[in-house]
Amino acid sequence: MLTVFLVTVLVILAYWSTRKPKELPPGRWGLPLVGYLPSNISVFKEVMEDFKKDYGSIFTWRVGSHVVVGLNDYPLIKSVFSMPQCQGRPDLFTFNIFKLNTNSGLVFSEGRVWHEGRRFALRHLRDFGLGKTSMEDIIEREAQELVAEFGKSGEQPIEVSWSLNVAVLNVIWRIVANRRYSIHDPEILRFSRMVATNLEIIQGPASLLDMFPWLARVAPSLLLDRWMRIDVLHKNLADFHKFVMDIIEEHKDTMDVNSPRDLIDTYLAARGDEPAFGAADDDINLFATISDLFGAGSETTSSTTRWVLLLMALHPEVQARVQKEIDEAVARNSLPSLKDRDKMPYTDAMLLETLRYSSLLPLSLFHATTEQVKISGYTVPKGTLLMANVEGCHRDPTYWEKPDEFYPEHFLDKEGRLLTKKEGFLPFSTGRRQCLGESLARMELFLFVSAILQNFTIKAPEGVTLTAEKDKGNRLFNMARPYKIVFAKRA
Ligand code: HEM
Fold first, then answer.
1. CA of 428 to the centre of ligand 1 (A)
2. Which atom, in ligand 1's list, is nearest to the CA of 432?
3. What are the pLDDT digits (tens) for 412-450?
4. Is residue 3 part of a domain?
5. How many CA atoms lie within 13 A of 374 on its CB side?
6. How far is the CA of 400 from the centre of ligand 1 (A)?
7. Which helix (H) or strand (E) holds 328?
8. Measured from the CB, is residue 174 less than 6 Å from ligand 1?
9. Does residue 441's CB lie within 6 angstroms of at least one atom of ligand 1?
10. What average pLDDT does the chain have?
11. 3-state SS track over 253-305
12. Is the pLDDT of residue 16 over 70?
């Protein structure tokens, strides 16, 4: 009798746990513990497209321990990402590592720590350099270094990643800690490798822990460390933590409250008896804020610049038109500056088209609901992971005349004027968590790329066919495949 009862209870439990709650959008629920695992699970953007074919603009997907609601069209993403209840971040293994398992920093934090920390960082970026060296001066200095470095290549094919990484990291170092490194400094080399390795690890087998967090408790440490390289991730973060904490201590000893030199001084001056912004610990929050600015602002900007240079080699006619515009707008003996920008709409259109075409973050960054919320008439519970198909919007023929081509005219009107606000375009995401470094990133792209194209014509090496195919090894980011190009000096 007892056995019959237990079996009945188990059958009912199994039935309930394999049924998707009715109030959620349509989708796939799968089995308890693992959820629904499609064969192409390692490429989320493909999974999104498959769901779009079956369910349209909104769907539910239980994967591992998470309930995902997928947003598969532009108006829906815009409206959901602006809802106050949809500004959280999901409880993911890798996200938690980056925020040191406490609500801290800018990218992975929530609530007051996020809101006030974001306002602080935005204000710092906006006001940076008033009366001193401006942001533009800092970026131009790095642009000069890039031109000098590429000039040394003697028209031999070179890899550009390293020089671009240093240029971009230096801009953030100046903002954060008033530092600058030479291109061959071993410290910045080590640092840049660390950022790249961390990015590689979180996109590799370690991402299994995001889907199945219980694996971290049951998997042998050999599997976690040898295969997923979790120990390397922890070691890199510990090294970086020590490095940054030494800089913070040095700032504490040398700062003048009335004359802050950088973000660290400004943060230290802002804190009172209580930790700033409602954080649990000021030092941890300041460290996580710095780490997030490097994490979010370095690889994104340098990878986008790598895309631009590759696309210029692949589209010489676009490159020639950009160079003609630069030559007409800027004196030959000075580098392009922001005051020239209004005269260079085609250059800006080409940069925006690169952001669309490459869709570096094809799914933006995952959001989560912080309380139960109604989306398109469905009831979505607290803690649901929200996944936005940004690349799908960038390839949607509703918004783009030639969605699969590289076509800068997408961002120009009939009179050749720049169209800055385009429906279906969200490389920096949208809503309250929209990228807070967007204007800095766009300034860097403009100044770096126009300085390079003023001085060089970019070509594929003799006998080499370059490709704009995306690097399949990067699951969460659309990186260009590694390539070499030639910088031919312009007369
Ligand atoms: C081409 C370069 C860049 C691209 C494509 C990019 C893209 C993005 C995207 C898609 C997000 C996710 C927004 C969301 O969760 O909805 C984001 C967030 C963020 N980005 Fe950027 N970004 C770039 C450069 C930068 C730079 C230069 C910085 C700062 C130095 C920066 C700082 C941040 C921060 C702090 C966040 C988190 C914002 C928040 O959660 O409130 N980004 N970025």
1. 6
2. 41
3. 999 999 998 999 999 999 999 999 999 999 999 999 999
4. no
5. 2
6. 24
7. helix 316-329
8. no
9. yes
10. 91
11. HHCCCCCCCCHHHHHHHHCCCCCHHHCCCHHHHHHHHHHHHHHHHCHHHHHHH
12. no
Q: Is 188 exposed, middle or buried (0-12, 13-18, 19+ CB in 10 A)?
A: buried
* Ligand 1 midpoint to CA 471 (Å): 21
Fill in the amino acid letter for 27: G
Split into its structural domains, the chain has a count of: 1
Which atom in ligand 1 lies closest to the alpha carbon of residue 366?
15
Domain CATH number, residue 85: 1.10.630.10
| Position in ligand 1 atom list of the atom nearest CA 298 | 27
> Per the domain annotation, does 47 fall within a domain?
yes
pLDDT of residue 274: 82
Ligand 1 atom closest to 442 (CA): 1
Closest by CA to 58, choosing from 416, 288, 389, is 389
Grade residue 18 by pLDDT with cuts at 50, 70 and 90: low
d(CA 181, CA 172): 11
Question: Token digits for 107?
Answer: 């990218």
3 state DSSP class of 306: helix
Q: For residue 321, report the distance from its CA to the centre of ligand 1, in Å.
A: 30
Q: Which amino acid is at 24?
A: L
Atom of ligand 1 nearest to the CA of 444: 27
Residue 334, SS3 per DSSP: coil
CA atoms within 13 A on the CB side of 315: 19
Place of tokens 């799908």: 392
| Domain assignment present for 485 | yes
**Cα angle: 92, vertex 192, 358; to 5 degrees:** 65
Cα separation of 370 and 85, whole Å?
5
Q: Is 354 in the pocket of ligand 1 (CB under 6 A)?
A: no
Is the CB–ligand 1 distance for residue 263 below 6 Å? no
Range of the domain at 235: 12-489
Closest CA to 109 of 291, 255, 346: 291
Give the Cα separation of 404 and 470 in Å (integer). 13
What is the tens place of the pLDDT at every residue in 43-75? 888 899 999 999 999 999 999 989 999 999 999
Structure tokens at 377: 């008439």
Measured CA to CA, the distance from residue 341 to residue 224 in angstroms comes to 49
Amino acid at 98: F
Question: Is 6 contained in some domain?
Answer: no
What is the tens place of the pLDDT at every residue in 200-215?
Answer: 888 888 888 998 888 8
Q: CB pairs under 8 A, 24+ apart, for 109-117?
A: 109/288, 110/370, 111/278, 111/370, 112/277, 112/278, 113/277, 113/278, 113/279, 113/285, 114/87, 115/277, 116/276, 116/277, 116/278, 117/277, 117/279, 117/285, 117/289
